[in-house]
Amino acid sequence: MKRQQVLVGGMPMPSLTERIVKAIFLTAICAVVVLPFVGVVSTSLSSPEEVIRAGGFVLLPTHGFDLSAYQSILSGGTVTQALLVSAFITAAGTTIALFLTCTLGWALSRRGSVGNKPLLLLVLISLLFNPGLIPSYLVIQQFGLLDSLWAVILPTSVSAFNVIVVRAYFIGLPAAVLDSARIDGASEWKLFWHIGLPLSKAVVAVVGLFYGVGYWNSFFGALLYLNDPSKWPLQLVLRTYVVNGVEIGAQDLGAAGEALPPQTSIQMAILMISVVPILCVYPFIQRHFAKGVLTGAVKG
């Protein structure tokens, strides 16, 4: 008798050899991705002696953890200032961007509203055409925003892609709920604030994460528009000290007269501080991704 093949999802179940090969292959890929991150964490937490003995990069600390690198960069110098600037840019930018995106998405989702189609056309055109670097700089200059944090926040406060996703989600809201609220005398603002937003927490959370990550990781706008180093966000400091390899002095860390950890430890600590906030926020938003993005993408 022929041995019957077990079907999994309509496909023949892979053999033991195939599963072993796939497991080895996926394990190797995971190792390639995870090991550099483990090395960054370990180097930032290793003692100065161990970092020097390892030649600048420690895969696993063998003599316990040492927080001297973090104490140095958070002692009130350039990195601390940049961290506060990035926190302000992210908080203010995400709040403004979410408000503008949700209100614009709601307006575009109301098909009978005045100027709906021309405004929607402008939003779609902005997906295809970029204003360019020089025109953008001249606009910022004409508005007097050079060397201001608002030059980093305002130009990216509305993303056409996010507006389309939010609009599509609002279109998919139950019409019966909105109509019953209108019958009870609810204004358009009340419909948006008390019904539209509470029913759209998933897409708002996802779009908010998109904006938050974008503002937290942005450095090019700061590089163009900010001349005062005290206004630099953390990513621009990271680029200066880690990517460009500029040595960090005691005066930059607010630790004049104190012995500093190795440069590699300080650089890895800055890198970790730039990554950890997003890693902490993402698990709380991750469960909304499938519902928020996919539903908003396929409707409308």
UniProtKB/TrEMBL annotation:
Gene3D superfamilies: MetI-like
Ranges annotated as spanning the membrane: 20-41, 82-107, 119-140, 160-181, 202-226, 266-285
Keyword Transcription regulation among record annotations: no
Recorded topology in the membrane: Multi-pass membrane protein
Entry keyword Transmembrane: yes
InterPro entries: MetI-like, MetI-like_sf
Alphabetic keyword roster: Cell membrane, Membrane, Transmembrane, Transmembrane helix, Transport
UniProt-listed Pfam families: BPD_transp_1
Main location: membrane
Domain ABC transmembrane type-1: 83-285
Subcellular location as annotated: Cell membrane
Entry's family note: Belongs to the binding-protein-dependent transport system permease family.
Name of the protein in question: Carbohydrate ABC transporter permease
